[in-house]
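User: Can you write out an input/output pair for a complex, sequences first and structure second?

Assistant: Here is one pair. Inputs:
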Amino acid sequence: QKEVEQNSGPLSVPEGAIASLNCTYSDRGSQSFFWYRQYSGKSPELIMSIYSNGDKEDGRFTAQLNKASQYVSLLIRDSQPSDSATYLCAVNRNDYKLSFGAGTTVTVRA
Amino acid sequence: GAVVSQHPSRVICKSGTSVKIECRSLDFQATTMFWYRQFPKQSLMLMATSNEGSKATYEQGVEKDKFLINHASLTLSTLTVTSAHPEDSSFYICSERGTGQYEQFFGPGTRLTVL
């Protein structure tokens, strides 16, 4: 079992719709969860961090965490063409390092 | 978040040569930095943790004699790919720990092509 698994893409959504990205992790002791956005040919950019169960909203992004289910998600509301990118889920290991999922590629259709 | 720079952004070299990549922290004194490698359409793979003033710690399967890491100051870590071969062609990215819990901020990356 991989440490961090993301729903396979690519995910195509029309402009203005909600894009829903899912991530599960195997280490029940993980405490910190991150979503990174990576445009093609660029390095990852941190867009959300979440540490407690529940929802965290930042602009059009909402991260949801359920530690009991070992599940974290990212919702992108009112999707824009500029949101087209690969989204990486990252979870802390039992040290201070991060494990990354394979990523979900999102395409927003104009 | 933290601001990290990398140099060069792109390098093409012949097989057998060594390539040095620099990673600089522009706003923090980074005692710990990380080096990742990313092959096309794959996720980030941690190669090693760079520790200021001490030896780097390498992930399982990463050859420490091939990927030399030096972290001589609080703002600079370097990765040297020794005797590079075409299979070393990849996107190398460094990161720095932020002030938040476990968060990391990435440099812009270095694309290495070995001919």
